[in-house]
Amino acid sequence: MKFCLNRQTAYSVISGLLILLTVWGCGLSDTKTSSTNTNAPASQAESKPATAAKKKIVLFYGNSLTAGYGVEPSQAFPALVGQKIDSAGLNYTVVNAGLSGETTAGGKSRISWVVRQPVAVFVLELGGNDGLRGLPLTATRQNLQAIIDTVRQKSPQATIVLAGMQIPPNMGTSYTKEFRGLFKELADKNKLILIPFLLEGVGGIPKLNQPDGIHPTPAGHKIVANTVWEVLKPVLK
């Protein structure tokens, strides 16, 4: 949930946006496997219209946790989930639309562009930066709701998975408790599938996090991927 972009993350984001353009423009006709590496060179793509065109999209939409700040793109949990999809022989491709520093307001502003074409599964991981900055939670709820509404408008058949988040108690007990609860409230209200806490088994454990104490290490991302996979697996099968 880094507040600024370093060179690696900026490159990853730009590459991810270019891949989104390719996916939307080509109907996935140039996707080789069901997992899209946001830094994969174009030479790795192979045209297989008959097979790839049938693949459904699992879109991960979030901040630096999703973008994989501080690790290689292939080590970030969305890519690891993509590998699990490949191994299971499921007909889906993963697209990582994570952006470091993203708040729910930023996510709201770009969502219409990101979901220009239908997605099958939309994994929403936003809100952490709002909480760390102590932003008004009324606005956080409204922004997340607007994102959910836009996805449902653009892709009525999409399954939306909401990743729950928790923050340290720096902002006070009341704020921290309300923040933790708003994800379940939104999931219940909108009948979403909820990941209770994305960083379960990782958050607060030094050896599984980078020196900033916020962003998972490669080992941490593996645990996050397992947490997400346990929720996604029954949705995809």
UniProtKB/TrEMBL annotation:
Protein name: Arylesterase
InterPro entries: Ester_Hydrolysis_Enzymes, SGNH_hydro, SGNH_hydro_sf
CDD domains: Lysophospholipase_L1_like
Organism: Spirosoma arboris
SUPFAM superfamilies for the chain: SGNH hydrolase
MF GO annotations: phosphatidylcholine lysophospholipase activity
Pfam families: Lipase_GDSL_2 (PF13472)
Coiled coil: none
Residues of the SGNH hydrolase-type esterase domain: 60-223
